[in-house]
Amino acid sequence: MRFEYAPAPEARSIVTLRDSYGLFIGGEFTAGSSVFKTISPATEEVLAEVTHAGPEDVDRAVAAARQAYERVWSVMPGRERGKYLFRIARLIQERARELAVLETMDNGKPIRESRDTDVPLSAAHFFYHAGWADKLSYAGFGPSPRPLGVVGQVIPWNFPLLMLAWKVAPALACGNTVVLKPAETTPLTALLFAEICQQADLPPGVVNIVTGDGTTGQAVVAHPGVDKVAFTGSTAVGKEIARACAVSGKRLTLELGGKAANVVFDDAPADQAVEGIVNGIFFNAGHVCCAGSRLLVQESVAEEVLGALKRRMAALRLGDPMDKNTDIGAINSRAQLEKIAELASSGEAEGAERWSAPCPLPDRGFWFPPTVFTGVSQAHRIAREEIFGPVLSVLTFRTPAEAVEKANNTPYGLSAGVWTEKGSLILWMASRLRAGVVWANTFNRFDPASPFGGYKESGFGREGGRHGLEAYLDVPGGGDV
Ligand code: NDP
Fold it and tell me: Do residues 417 and 309 both lie within one domain?
C-alpha cells in the first residue's frame, strides 16, 4: 500500500535575504573586487549577489586576522574565549530555523536534514569546543600549548554551515584567528554566521569570511601571512594545496574524498541493515565524503537484501527540499549533476546493471534519482571513483577475509560500516579496515567529541575530539608539511 502525503512546506519567510552581500573582514561587511550570483539548485532562481574576493581582499582579511590574533584573541584568557564560543553556540540555536531554511535554499538538501542534522551539530561543535577553551592545559599537549596564529580555511558545499563549525570552533577555542572561504555555490549560511559573530560581539578580525571561487581559495592557501591551512574538499584540490604549502612552514590538515565500504554479513538484522544502507548513501543525496557508496553484501543474502533495498528506495520521496516529507533533495550544481551522470553512464558502459527508483524528477533544478548498480566489479570506475551523488555500487563477498580485502581495495580510507550481530566479528573487521571511522550496525553518526579523518588519499589530520585540537596548537604532530 502506498500512502500519499500532503505537502508540508517549511515557510521561507523566516529568512531575510539581502540583494547583495559583501565580504566579512575586520568585523564588518565590506565591498570587494567583483560579484557573482548564488542560486537555488532546486529551482535555479537567483537568491542573492555575493562578493568575489580577489588577492587584495584576501590580503585585507589576513591583515585583520593577524591584528586580532596579536592584540586580542591569543592573549585573551581561555575562559573568556570560551564565553564567546558559548554565545555563538546559543545564537546558532536561537537562529536555528533561519539557518536551516537558508541552508536548504542555497544547498538544495532536504529541510529535514538541515533542521535535524546540520544546524544542531553545528551548535554542538561550538558548545563542545567552548568547553575546551579554558582546559587546553589538560588536553595532554603540555602545560600551556600555544595557538598557531592565522588560520586559512577552505570548505566545500555539501555541509556548508557544519563544515564551517568543524573548522572555526576548534581554531577559535585554541586561540587562533580565521580567514574562511566557503564554497562558491553555498556562501549564504557562512554570511549569516558572520552576522552571528557580530551579534555575539566577537572582537573584529577574529573571524573573517571571504566569498569567491577556487582562485579565492588559492589566494587564502598561498598567503604568506597564513600560519596554518585547513581544507575540506576533493582529493585533486587537496593534492594541489599540499604542493602549494610544501616547505612553506605552514601547518596543513586535509579532509578529502572517500569511497566507503558498507559491509553487510548474512547474520545482520536485514531491515536495520537496509535502513543503514539507505542512510549511508542517500543521506544528503550522497554528497557525503564518508558516504557508504560501495555496498559489500555477503553472497548468501545478497538477493534478499537487494530486494528489500529496492522496495525501500522506491518509497523515497524526491523533490522540493523545503517540504518536510522530502527524503532526497536537489544536486547542488549543474556541474556536479553532470559529473554524477557521466560516472553513472560509465557504470552501464562497463557492464554493470543500473536500477533507479521510479520517482518523477522536477522540471527545473538539478536532480538525480536514487540509483543502485549491481554486477559491479572492482575494476569498474563506479567502484573506484568517488561519485558524490545518490549512486550505490553493489559487490558481493563470501568470507570476512574477502570482505576486508575488497573494502580496503581503494585509494581512499575515510570510513566504513559493518553489519553483523557478532561483536567479535565487528572487532575483527574494525581492526583490519583501513578507514578513519568504522561504524558498527549504524552509519553516518557524528559527534563533536569523536575525531574524524582519513587515511591515504582521504587526507590527514583529525577534526573533533581531543585529537582535533592538535591541528590548531603549536605541538608536534599537528600537520607539518
Ligand atoms: P573542491 O575540492 O573542488 O572544493 C572545495 C573548496 O576548495 C571550495 O571552497 C572550492 O572553491 C575551493 N577550491 C577549489 N579549487 C581550489 C584551489 N586550487 N585552491 C584552494 N581552494 C580551492 O570540492 P567540492 O567543493 O566540489 O566538494 C566535493 C569534494 O569534497 C568531494 O570530493 C568530497 O569527497 C570532498 N569532501 C570531503 C570531506 C571530508 O571531510 N573528507 C567533506 C566534504 C567534502 P569553489 O567552491 O569556489 O570551487
Answer: yes
Polymer length in residues for the chain: 481
Alpha helices in 156-202 (DSSP H): 160-173, 188-199
Burial class (CB in 10 A: 0-12, 13-18, 19+), 442: middle
Instruction: Output the DSSP codes for 228-266.
Output: EEEEES-HHHHHHHHHHHTTTT-EEEEE-----EEEE-T
The domain spanning residue 305 has which CATH number? Answer: 3.40.309.10
pLDDT band at 465 (very low <50, low <70, confident <90, very high): very high
233 and 266 share a domain?
A: no
d(CA 326, CA 439): 26
**Cell matching residue 32:** 570587494
- Identify whether 174 is a catalytic site residue: no
| Statement to judge: residues 235 and 305 lie in one domain | no
The CATH number given to whatever domain includes residue 97 is 3.40.605.10
Which residue, judged by its Cα, is nearest atom 14 of ligand 1?
214
Residue 56 lies in a domain: yes
Residue type, 8: A
Strand order in the sheet with 228-232: 28-30, 23-25, 207-209, 177-181, 150-154, 228-232, 251-255, 459-460
289 is catalytic: yes
Across 316-331, average pLDDT: 97
pLDDT digits (tens, 9 = 90+) for 388-401: 999 999 999 999 99
The verdict on the CB of residue 462 being under 6 Å from ligand 1 is no
**pLDDT tens digits, 175-210:** 999 999 999 999 999 999 999 999 999 999 999 999
pLDDT for 477: 63
Helices (runs of H) and strands (runs of E) counted in the chain: 16, 18
Tell me the C-alpha distance between 178 and 249, whole Å. 18
Q: Which domain holds residue 277?
A: 261-440
Q: Which three cell numbers stand for residue 121?
A: 551539530
In our burial notation (b when 16+ CB lie closer than 10 A, e otherwise), range 342-358 reads ebbeebeebebeebbbe
Whole-number Å distance between alpha carbons of 179 and 183: 13
At 414, list the grid cell. 575515510
Pick the catalytic residue from 10, 113, 184, 255. 255
For the stretch 406-420, pLDDT in tens is: 999 999 999 999 999
Selection from 303, 288, 291, 294 nearest residue 261 by Cα:
294
**Overall number of domains in the chain:** 2
Ligand 1 atom closest to Cα of residue 235: 32
pLDDT in tens, 228-267: 999 999 999 999 999 999 988 899 999 999 999 999 999 9
Same-domain check for residues 336 and 426: yes
